[in-house]
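User: I'm new to structure prediction. If I give you an amino acid sequence, what do you actually give back? Let's try with this one:
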Amino acid sequence: MTILETVGRTPLLPIFEGNKGTRIFAKAEFFNPSGSVKDRAVKGMLDDAIKSGKLTKEKIILDATSGNTGIAYAMFGAALGYKVALCLPANASKERKRLLKIYQAEIIPTSPLESSDGALLKARQLYNENPEKYYYPDQYNNNENWKAHYNNTAAEIWEQTNQKITHFVAGMGTSGTFTGTARRLKEFNPSIKTIPMQPESPLHGLEGMKHMASTILPGFYDPTLFDGQINVSTEEAKKMTRKLAEETGLFVGVSSGANVLAAVKLAEKLSPNEIIVTILCDNGHRYLSDELWD
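Assistant: Good question. You get back a string of structure tokens that encode the predicted 3D arrangement of the chain. For your 294 residues, that looks like this:
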């Protein structure tokens, strides 16, 4: 077995029981080998690139990242023998930068004021200047991103809930997790409601999540899949993240706390005995320097 074969089949954990017996479950994506949900998309994109011949040993894997996708690229690059270069906002946590360096990835820092959009524009620039040097998966526009969740994440959730899921809630960065999972779940059962979590403002601290109204939209972003929307503040999400650690033993990142909070808010509005599933995007170890844990 290779490290790529350990991606997926993550456990579905019970989190809270809400009003009137409504239950909240979460996919523990930190069980993936690099520690986040992004392993799924990166595996899909690299598998496709290698099989099609677009990625050869002579090329450097280049992409923009806010952290987790980059760590997945770096880990798989080290495992498969590919060099990796990543455009990363300069204010990314020191734990993320250290992990990337451990895997020998090159970090190309970009303006923190431009957030992930600045990293995206820099990656495009570098690729356009030297397309022979790089393989540019472009996670924001690569259909293998959402297909990884369409083919795997959604099917796992369907099976693990014994086909009883009624609602799916998740935030969006590239929107790949939400788009692929929601699209497939609706094919399994059109009555399933799929609801995005959104940061309540453009200036937020939900690492990896985008405020879609104020950012460059991913190419596969699909609002036709939305059955409403739940907005979450950074402070609310931080409180839930601490609560998860203190009361459930789940040490996760703030985006995971935001997803769970959105699911709790949804549960308060639902009729009895609904089953909500959300995503625990990553573990908390790569955020230890965040003031959240002071």
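You can read the tokens as a compact description of the fold. Here is one thing that stands out. The chain is about 40% helix and 15% strand.
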